[in-house]
Amino acid sequence: MTFSPNAVARLRDEREEESTKPYLARGSRAPRCHTCRVIVSHCLCNWRPRVSTRAGVCLIMTKKEVFKPSNTGWLIADVVKDNFAFIWSRTETDDALLALLADPQWQPYLVFPGEYVAPERVTHSVEMDTSKRPLFILLDATWTEARKIFRKSPYFDALPILSLLPEKLSRYRLRRSTRSEHLCTAEVASLCLDLAGDTEASCALDAYFDVFSQHYLDAKNQLPINESSAAHRELGVFVKDLPQNRSQ
To answer: What average pLDDT does this structure show over 136-155?
Structure first.
């Protein structure tokens, strides 16, 4: 199985070409791997999992989010084969996004808290319809930005709202949050994949997220990589090119 294209990486590269000056996110001055965005000494590339998925994921991002090294939407696009990413604009609608939402192979679900919409639009489960594959629309932005995107995107009005009921608090430690019940984008995607029956991919994304967090924070704190950690062992099951897996 070969790696699938990462739509978030492609979006970042497109934005860099369009920008007249570089966007300097927090931590962006450190030399980083262009592929995984982690500081070079703690590169994550050898730990990218390879799994198959039936579901697809579409990330709706702000112009700044795509450049942030701590962004976890990037991890989702590494794991889910059919991944899409679009920059949100209040005044312009991307025709490619509208075409994706209308594609008959997909059943789109907008992932958002159900308390903000009419109850008849809300579901807590994913229909396992053999004629359509689930496509999870994730608003990859801060909570304030996500609410704005939700309110000002009329093309989402007809979509069912998938409201998740997580049993655990967020494990995300790379940015400050005032509410621990708010999951980061990768954690949300993992729950969605599990609901869609993509259990292996859900577990791989969870482990990948934990290893990414560990590499990111160890680099930030100038600590060596600990590849014997529990997170690395869990992820290693899904990484085909590790030395211990090459004979399998």
So the answer is: 95
57/62 Cα distance (integer angstroms): 16
Distances from the Cα of 240 to the Cα of 6, 21, 45, 172, angstroms: 18, 39, 12, 26
Whole-model pTM over 0.70: yes
Closest CA to 65 of 95, 88, 40, 92: 88
Asked whether the beta carbons of 88 and 59 are under 8 A apart, the reply is no
How many other CB atoms sit within 10 Å of the CB of residue 62?
19
- Could you tell me which of 130, 85, 84 has the C-alpha nearest to residue 107? 130
> What per-residue string of b and e applies to 19-41 under the rule 16 or more CB within 10 Å gives b?
eeeeeebebeeeebeeebbbbee
* 1 domain-assigned: no
Asked if 69 and 28 count as a contact pair (C-beta separation under 8 A), the reply is: yes
Q: Is residue 72 part of a domain?
A: yes
What percent of the chain clears pLDDT 70, i.e. is strictly above it?
Answer: 84
Number of domains making up the chain: 1
Lowest-pLDDT range, 1-10, 104-113, 123-132? 1-10
> Where in the sequence is the domain holding 64, given as residue range(s)?
7-245
User: Three-state SS for 115?
Assistant: helix
What H or E segment, with its residue span, contains residue 15?
Answer: helix 7-18
| Mean pLDDT score, 57-80 | 94
